Amino acid sequence: MSETTTQSEIEIPRPTSGDVLERILEDHRLFEDLLRLARRTDTDRAAARQALAEVLVAHATSEEEEVYPTLRKDRAISEHEEEHGEEEHAEIIEALLAFLQVEGTDGQEYDDALEDLATVVNHHSNEEEQTILNPSREDVSAKEREQLGTAWLTRRNQLLEQGCASPAQVAALLDEAVDEGTLAPEEAREEADAIKAEAKQKAKEVEEAAKQD
Q1: pTM for the whole structure
Q2: What are the residue ranges spanned by the domains of the chain?
């Protein structure tokens, strides 16, 4: 990837047309590339972090505005699948904000926040490819996918040009997701996480006890 003087020091590809499904897949591979760059110790991690943030936000926002509503209208996806995709986007935004708020790029806190983000990003990409992109190949014509690709990329590239992933912008997106009910309030999520952690510990104790028998 080459350096540029725009929103980050890493150039983000900005195609303007093409089958929307293939272009989304290209972004998924871009996520993986940027996550690897953000892990490496011989790269500009700060530039990788900002480029990753920008493309994640631009990708998700333009999907929710342009792609999901159209695929639902065409009956390629259900209301539940659209809502689930938006919920996973909100979870990515939450993990991204935590990652952006880490001071510096060379400590354990950075590594932990990066891996938390990678987990939710990779999960969403995999699920979206199986439950949204695959059905759309059968249910949406090639012409419609091309038209949708242009609309999606136009909005995506507009967001990238404006700059869309400062910590303040990402925090605002998270607040919006909570206000709209896409994501539960932080207190409820923390309580749910505590319950899950307690259950996981209990399950581990049961397994360990069984090994002693």
Answers
A1: 0.87
A2: 20-182, 184-213
